[in-house]
Automatic annotation (TrEMBL):
Residues annotated as catalytic: 139 (charge relay system), 167 (charge relay system), 327 (charge relay system)
Gene Ontology biological process terms from the UniProt entry: proteolysis
Parts of the chain that traverse the membrane: 6-24
Alphabetical list of SUPFAM superfamilies matching this protein: Subtilisin-like (SSF52743)
Entry keyword annotation includes Transmembrane: yes
Keywords noted in UniProt: Hydrolase, Membrane, Protease, Serine protease, Transmembrane, Transmembrane helix
Family designation: Belongs to the peptidase S8 family.
Pfam families xref list: Peptidase_S8
Superkingdom, taxonomy of origin: Bacteria
UniProt xrefs under InterPro entries: Peptidase_S8/S53_dom (IPR000209), Peptidase_S8/S53_dom_sf (IPR036852), Peptidase_S8_subtilisin-like (IPR050131), Peptidase_S8_subtilisin-rel (IPR015500)
Residues annotated as domain Peptidase S8/S53: 130-362
Name of the featured protein: Peptidase
Length: 380
């Protein structure tokens, strides 16, 4: 019986991971962006945790108070845990300090959210930034002129284009953004694909395009790895063709990192509240979204929540995301691979994954979490 329960639990978790962040994907197809987030007019004057939890649909949870005016509301009774999961940006209008949760400083938290955490800054200080490694993201269209990627990103359109989308902007920021990125020194290629139900078809076209581009690049400049914060399930009509495309990419020396791949390796996501030291792995927790499930004890957390990334609003705008999702963890692991290849170009991606597993550490709750410093030290 216990074995059956464990199998069911693992299956549920993998299905969640395959979605690349289920709540993120649902937002793709719903409504007018101007109406996304929590509507202040529907909140009482005194806001509590209970009130905010009622406003917890996918879009409300993702967009939170972005662009909203909550200056007339009293948020002082809201806990730090709940407010941490509410997204916001610089256009959010907050009440005076006495009406904010004790210890909550939006400006400070906004800046802290750019920090990749887990002492990656110390790795960057040693010059290990992914310099000399070319990486790619395949995702929906974004503002390609954002300063986070200025002079370091090549933007390539695949298929008919749609409006700019937050999803790819966040993924690109976490992978190789100048101020938010794990591999902040890597050269970034961005392949913008349509926001379509047949998105996997365009992913495969983008991978074929990368293979063609690599044929014309010098060996030391070829795109080595591509991050796709999405998955292709076995029941999907594109599954067989997807497997063939991945096999072709691998034969050409290209690693494709996507949710199925990392989910099967039992990676998941979590985060560290901005009120705590995010360099200390003890302060990390599995994502609040996953706490409703029984998680396999061998699962390894990758940072994916409580991050600040570039925004599509303007070339200088950023946004704080409360809940991120597995979609944010995938480019994080991809970035770590770029750092590893700068140190040891001869490693295979499987060896990199093995090292990440071997060097894992634990949180205060006894869950496993990656340890970037120990990981990089292990491959010198």
């Amino acid at each position: 019986m216990k074995k059956k329960i464990l199998i069911i639990t693992i299956t549920i978790v993998i299905l969640i991971l395959i979605g690349g962040g289920i709540f993120v994907k649902k937002a793709i197809e719903m409504g007018d962006p101007k109406n996304w987030g929590i509507n202040p007019s529907k909140l009482p004057d005194i806001v509590t945790d209970k009130v905010l939890k009622k406003h917890h649909s996918e879009l409300e949870r993702i967009y939170g108070f972005q662009g909203k005016d909550v200056s007339k509301k009293d948020l002082s009774k809201v806990s730090l845990e709940v407010i941490s999961n509410i997204g916001f940006d610089k256009s959010t209008k907050w009440p005076e300090k006495s009406k904010l949760p004790q210890g909550y400083d939006p400006d400070k938290w906004f800046d802290i959210g750019k920090d990749t955490g887990l002492n990656l800054s110390k790795i960057h200080e040693k010059g290990i930034t992914g310099k000399g490694i070319s990486v790619a993201v395949i995702d929906k269209p974004i503002r390609s002129t954002h300063n986070e990627f200025k002079d370091k990103m090549t933007y390539i359109k695949i298929g008919d284009q749609t409006n700019s989308h937050f999803h790819g902007m966040a993924c690109a920021s976490i992978l190789a953004g100048k101020t938010c990125g794990v591999a902040s020194g890597a050269k970034l290629y961005y392949f913008a694909t349509p926001d379509s139900r047949d998105r996997q078809e365009y992913y495969m076209k983008a991978i074929d395009k990368i293979i063609d581009i690599n044929k014309s690049l010098p060996k030391n400049e070829k795109i080595r790895i591509v991050s796709i914060s999405d998955g292709v399930e076995k029941k999907d009509k594109y599954y067989s063709k997807w497997q063939e495309t991945i096999k072709k990419a691998n034969s050409e020396g290209l690693t494709v990192v996507y949710s199925n791949l990392l989910g099967e390796k039992k990676f998941t996501w979590g985060g560290c509240y901005a009120s705590k030291n995010r360099d200390n792995p003890l302060n990390y927790e599995i994502s609040n979204y996953l706490k409703q499930y029984r998680i396999d004890k061998s699962t390894i957390i990758v940072p994916g929540d409580f991050r600040t990334t570039a925004s599509n609003s303007s070339d200088n705008d950023y946004v704080y995301w409360g809940e991120g999702g597995f979609s944010w963890a995938i480019p994080y692991v991809t970035g770590l691979a770029a750092l590893a290849w700068q140190v040891n170009p001869n490693l295979t991606f499987d060896q990199i994954i093995d090292k990440l597993i071997e060097t894992k550490t634990t949180t205060s709750e006894g869950l496993y979490i990656i340890n970037p410093v120990k990981f990089i030290d292990s491959i010198h």
